[in-house]
Amino acid sequence: MNERVSDRIATVVFWAIGMAVLAILLFIILEIFGRGLSTALNPHFFFGKPEAVKNGGGVFPMIWSTMYLVSLTTIISLPLALGAAIYMSEYAKKGKVSSFIRFSLDSLATLPSIVFGLFGLTIFVVYFGWSYCLLAGACTLAILNLPILLRGIEESLRLVPNAYREGSMSLGASKWTTIRKVVVPTALPGVLTATILPIGRIVGESAAIIYTVGLFVRTIPLSPFSTAAPLAGYIWYAQSEASVADYRKIVDGGAALLLLMVLVIYFLARFAAKLYQNRQ
Q1: What dihedral do alpha carbons 26, 29, 35, 40 form, nearest 10°?
Q2: Tell me, what's the pLDDT at 213?
Q3: Domain residues of the chain, as ranges?
Q4: CATH architecture for segment(s) 43-279
Q5: Contacts (Cβ under 8 Å, ≥6 apart) of 212
Q6: pLDDT below 50 — which residues of the chain?
């Protein structure tokens, strides 16, 4: 009887905690959308250029900068993370070296993003002489997201059943061919899922890009060495500087738009992973 009562109490407690977390999340989403969704969906705000001193500015250069930064960061970090994950899951033996690598990755993942921003400022902006540009921000964010991305891809590769590897090698395929033709395609839905979290972090990151990319532009950046202003950084700039009278409208609309972008990227990635899994 005591075990049944304990089980019911634990069930009620954990359900209550789960519902409380869900309620907080819904409150945040509804609050952000309630304040700024009408502004975010306004074509003039979406496609317009920002204003430095007068009202009525838009955020299209910031949206472009955000998507450009996401693309550059993914191009840099995904091949590195995939190659390192293949090594860690398929080739590395259990021992002090692999344990040290995992410990270093876990330690790197816990560092505050502003530390990576200062590192990017010192190395890419000052030492390499790139100044504030998209490439400096992309390299900084690639380092920032590499531990999370690598561990996620590594776990996806480890979830592939060993029977797949054994079946491929029994037919005469080499280990590299098995990895390239069997393991990675099978793990691709998990790889896409593991990429979602870093992309969402890139879209919403502000501390690192303040020191490496820029905060305000009125033209669309085309070159990786161009100064840009991702949306998250511009929201911080508009709130902290308050140089225009309608800054509150810009902040609320930008936050709602930022949340929409994250949700759209998340659902598109999940849809692509599900579609690929069904085709397989």
Answers
A1: -150
A2: 92
A3: 1-40, 43-279
A4: Orthogonal Bundle (1.10)
A5: 117, 120, 121, 124, 125, 132, 133, 136, 137, 140
A6: none
Residue of 235, 196, 195 whose CA lies nearest to 32: 235
**CA count, 13 A, side-chain hemisphere, 230:** 33
Query: Tens digit of pLDDT for each residue in 187-210?
Result: 888 888 888 878 888 888 888 888
Q: Quote the pLDDT of residue 1.
A: 55
The model's pTM: 0.86
Task: Write the CA distances from 122 to 104, 116, 136, 174, 275, integer angstroms.
Answer: 21, 10, 10, 44, 43
- Which residue, chain included where needed, has tokens 């997201």? 145
Using H for helix, E for strand and C for coil, what is the string for the chain?
CHHHHHHHHHHHHHHHHHHHHHHHHHHHHHHHHHHHHHHHCCHHHHHCCCCCCCCCCCCHHHHHHHHHHHHHHHHHHHHHHHHHHHHHHHHCCCCHHHHHHHHHHHHHHCCCHHHHHHHHHHHHHHHCCCCCCHHHHHHHHHHHHHHHHHHHHHHHHHCCCHHHHHHHHHCCCCHHHHHHHHHHHHHHHHHHHHHHHHHHHHHHCCHHHHCCCCCCCCCCCCCCCCCCCCHHHHHHHHHHHCCCCCHHHHHHHHHHHHHHHHHHHHHHHHHHHHHHHHHC
User: Tokens 């929409």 correspond to what residue?
Assistant: 260
| pLDDT at residue 42 in the model | 87
